[in-house]
Design a protein that fits this description.
Blueprint (H helix, E strand, L loop, with lengths): L1 E5 L4 H13 L4 E6 L19 E5 L5 H11 L3 E4 L6 H6 L1 H25 L6 E7 L23 H20 L3 E6 L2 E2 L8 H10 L4 E4 L5 E3 L1 E2 H14 L5 E4 L4 E3 H15 L11 E4 L14 H7 L7 H14 L1 H9 L5 H7 L2
Parallel strand pairs: 1-2, 1-4, 2-3, 4-5, 5-6, 6-11, 7-10, 8-13
Antiparallel strand pairs: 9-12
This protein binds nicotinamide-adenine-dinucleotide and thymidine-5'-diphosphate.
The site of thymidine-5'-diphosphate (TYD) has 12 residues, from α6 and β8.
Length: about 350
Amino acid sequence: MKILITGGAGFIGSHVVRLFVNTYPNYTIYNLDKLTYAGNLANLKDIESKPNYKFIKGDIVDAEFINKLFSEHKFNAVIHLAAESHVDRSITNPLEFVYTNVIGTVNLLNAAKTIYKEDISAFKLFYHVSTDEVYGSLGETGMFLETTAYDPHSPYSASKASSDHFVRAYHDTYGLPALISNCSNNYGPNHFPEKLIPLCISNIKNNKPLPIYGKGENIRDWLYVIDHARAIDTIFHKAKAGSTYNIGGHNEWTNIDVIKLLCKIMDRKLNRAEGTNEKLITYVKDRAGHDLRYAIDSTKLQNDLGWKPSLQFEEGLEKTVDWYLTNEEWLNHVTSGDYQKYYEQQYVKR
Ligand code: NAD
Ligand code: TYD
């Protein structure tokens, strides 16, 4: 199997690439990534020399490049994660999200359709990795099911919803074997420090304010990133084309409770007196269109395919803090921008 994984230098993509490269030596994993600000090849240092791993720098928005790539390599499957992924950036620059998340996805679908039509037994699956944010916002009760109607509110979730619709349309119209999973908020190692948890870990470390939007009462359903990667592996190998699976850990927390727990863990790890870090909490202006609550029901995935999360949130958060504290260089390079030189140093000079 030749598998194209897009966005493999990003947060979740790098965990998926590592899992597939290490677990399936008979697959060749092609990691296609534009290396935007969110792409960091240092995430994959440990596997970059493995014989079944190849990195390709490229932009999914460039249709000509994508068509050529598919015609050259004739991939047997695609796992598509490349995206613009930060809600706040989508509020400032929505068009970038339309280009990458919508047009980029359609470019990949077109290229996959072409090689599928050439040899329908060789092309097995187009796996589109999506988010629970396409379902919109919940009130105090209820959970998102696979059948919940789409109701996106941010330009990010609108662009992901649009890409999901295109994936289903290509399955229904052209018979392309495709499926989608919609996952809740991830956290864990290699998370770019613009998102709530890694931003606050970095700020606590540096004694900087912890910005909490509004009253901190918004609820997110957190899943450890390696559990998401495991779910993708399970769905990739066991699910039927045309299906949809929700992925989540039944793990709802208000933002303020997450940050208070993080402050407590880091008081202990940094040998600071209890309560020191909480003083850094600073309430700031709320995000525009801020979704109140996400909660995902992943019963179908658990019952049909036997996946379940391996970690409780407290344990996962502790592991995440440990990772950031022992990988200071990763964080320093990301904060300074040095990580963007890694591609030139490791790949171009060769
Ligand atoms: P990320 O922002 O950390 O990584 C995105 C990767 O895509 C980066 O490596 C970036 O360089 C690459 N990329 C961006 N534009 C590209 C382009 N035009 N061409 C090629 N590569 C490009 O994102 P993430 O948090 O790892 O999310 C990965 C996927 O999972 C996204 O599709 C996202 O919507 C989805 N998702 C994320 C979460 C979450 O909590 N982070 C939850 C559910 C689903
Ligand atoms: P984020 O990590 O950006 O993920 P998403 O918007 O995809 O859920 O934000 C998680 C929650 O934390 C969300 O309710 C917004 C909030 N938030 C803050 O309160 N302060 C921050 O600085 C950030 C980045 C997010």
